[in-house]
Amino acid sequence: MTDSAAAGSSHRGAEGPYYGPYGGRWMPESLIAALDEVEQTFGEAREDEEFVAEYQRLCRDYTGRPSLLAEVPRFAAEQGAARILLKREDLNHTGSHKINNVLGQALLARRMGKTRLIAETGAGQHGVATATAAALMGMECMIYMGAEDTRRQALNVARMRLLGAEVVPVEHGAKTLKDAINEALRDWVATVENTHYLLGTVTGPHPFPSMVRWFHQVIGEEAREQMLAQEGRLPDAVAACVGGGSNAMGIFHAFLDDAEVALHGYEAGGDGVETGRHAAAITLGRSGVLHGARSYLMQDEDGQTLDSHSISAGLDYPSVGPEHAHLADSGRAVYEPVTDAECMTAFETLCRTEGIIPAIESAHALAGAARLSAAWTAEDPEAAAERIIVVSLSGRGDKDVGTAAEWFDLLDEQQERQERQERQERLDEDEQGDETGVQA
Amino acid sequence: MSITADAVEAARAEGRSAFIGYLPAGYPDKEASIAAAIALAENGADVLEIGIPYSDPVMDGPVIQQATTEVLARGFRMDEVFEIVAAVSAATDAAVLVMTYWNLIDRMGPAVFARRLAEAGGAGAITPDLTPDEAEAWIAAADAHDLDRVFLAAPTSTPERMRRIAESSRGFVYGVSLMGVTGARTEVSDAAERVVSAAHEAGAERVCVGLGVSTRAHVEEIGAYADGVIVGTALVAALRDGGPEAVAAKAAELSGRG
Ligand SMILES: Cc1ncc(COP(=O)(O)O)c(C=O)c1O
User: What value does the mean pLDDT take over residues A87-116?
Assistant: First the structure.
């Protein structure tokens, strides 16, 4: 491994700005100076022992790292013969992997003398983590969230507000994650002097893809060490869900040069990629530029971005981090879509068999692991029984209980009818409100 | 020779700065957008910017966003841009630039886009999310079809970047007057004059200033030091509220011919 790294064929430690033909910095000139400042500050900070020590201290004493690597035998038994271990990022403070990146960038923001953090959020997990870091460091905080997502993830909106952040529902476009990013960028162009844009995944202009990955690499480094300590060997496969791709890059990175470890990324297949209602950028996208990076992109024949669809707000994004695009082309990692239905089956199974409620995002990775185990078992049950899959359980599902209750019809009918009626009344009121607004 | 540079120099020869107006392609519909652009040229615009509606316009404020979102919602396609540019450049003497986010060029292919733009009589393109660092393919395609390429310069651009921007631009350098997105402002930022002198010092022959310019007073103030003044949102709002006639009146007022 060290030899191949020395020979220059290592996949690890890619610095950007380019990953093969992907990545780069397709941004308005107004933001280039700020991106240069972030790049330089990050470059210095990662070599600064004090900075690294403070980051690691926060990861330990605030986030609760290292996170567990724990086997889920009852879940695994329902899928096939292979063993399945979960990397429990859901146990981190704030409930997902997002905090790893947020604490790192918040420290950088402080180092740059910025006093205000802004961020986009889809599921609300990144927004919650950013609001948390802002509270911890005494910074001002504004979170942009698609109006569609503020409805699906209402609980997280309340959490962010409790933490002192201002939450701005974005009413443009599809009213989801990509539109929240547009709005955050518009804010940043006007406020760069005192504001850091704390981008929440491995997308965006250089240096965000490599910097965000660096702060998440700890996931894979821990998982690799834990495998060696607990099992005496590396896993056969690592599975992670891919929205922008930060939890996946974080866990993949440590294994990139372990050729015997298969890397599987699972994108949101929505209603099924054949329906067009999905968010499977790698599976069906083609190269394009969005939000500062060249990568796989869901776009129409004219280059207009297509609306993505997924039951999971955190995966509802029409592109993907540029390093994933490169890993897909090189074949080092394999990406497949998982439909809403498959993901919700895995979600329910983990709840029922292990007493763990996963984030719907992470349930895509569970469904992928289930698919792998079933395929191996069909091929050769004895060999499959010797195999181990590590799944990145990127977050917990508290925020998703409402969505799951609807999906599985868990509320009794009378209550449901009443809630539906109330929701309709609220919508009617909103519409009337809007109309008055326009007339005024 | 550069059509855009000629238009700016012609204004200079008359002892004034060039007046440059932006309107979105296809807003509120194809015919009205052609009529509005022609009205703009007939009422003092030396250079026209035809903005191509895009799904993710990160440099645009609410007025332009709303207009371009409406155009996309009615099924706008790229072919329309070339039809509009052809109709407008046939009917006026103004230089006709398009303003476009990069992915629309990328998807068509820079070479095809440049050929079609040149065939339509277009002068070149302004590319708000493309810096010279990523522009190799665009510069080659624009050169192959003798098109102008206008890059942006910001208050935060370093002297080194200013030089690169000046060297890479043809036609003029677009000086961003303030840190922010498009939209009318009540006052001209004092950053505008610094951007213009920095770009001139870096070797740019023509520097035109835009973002937030919305009144005749702004145009006069900026015209005192810049080679051209760019107005967008104020014209789009006029088109929204009063159609092509309102654009004609607003353009006449802004250009000082009212
Ligand atoms: C729990 C969880 N997992 C995954 C994601 C997707 O992001 P990424 O692909 O960057 O890991 C999100 C995003 O909101 C999330 O909340």
Answer: 98
Task: Give residue A8's pLDDT.
Answer: 59
Fold designation for A19-63+98-208: Rossmann fold (3.40.50)
Q: How many other β-carbons are positioned within 10 Å of the β-carbon of residue B84?
A: 25
Q: Which tokens is A82 given? A: 């292979």
Give the pLDDT band of residue A439 (cuts 50, 70, 90): very low
Q: Tell me the pLDDT tens digit for each residue of A311-345.
A: 998 999 999 999 999 999 999 999 999 999 999 99
Q: Is residue B22 part of a domain?
A: yes
pTM of the model: 0.94
| CA angle centred on A158, ends A156 and A161, rounded to 5° | 110
Distance CA B195, CA B18 (A): 17
Strands A293-297 and A333-339: unpaired
CA dist., res. A101 & res. A216, Å (int)? 6
B258 in any annotated domain: no
Pocket test for ligand 1, best of A241, A316, A400 (most atoms within 8 A of CB): A241
**Residue A229 pLDDT class (50, 70, 90 cuts):** very high
Q: Are B95 and B7 in contact (CB under 8 A)?
A: yes
- Residue B257 inside a domain? The answer is no
Count of structural domains within chain B? 1
* CB-based contacts of A263, cutoff 8 Å, min separation 6: A237, A238, A252, A255, A256, A327, A332, A333, A334
Between vectors from CA B76 to CA B230 and to CA B68, what angle results, nearest 5°? Answer: 40
Q: Does B28 map to a domain?
A: yes
Please state at what angle helix A154-162 crosses helix A125-137, rounded to 10 degrees. Answer: 0
Q: Taking the domain A69-93+216-403, which CATH number applies?
A: 3.40.50.1100
Closest CA to A163 of A205, A197, A125, A199: A125
Task: Tell me if A125 CB under 6 Å of ligand 1.
Answer: yes
Give the containing element (helix H, strand E) for A309.
Answer: none
State whether the Cα torsion A424-A426-A432-A437 is positive or negative: negative
- Mutation to probe ligand 1, out of A247, A350, A400 (largest number of atoms < 8 A from CB): A247
B165 touches A: beta carbon within 8 Å: yes
Report whether pLDDT(A433) > 70. Answer: no
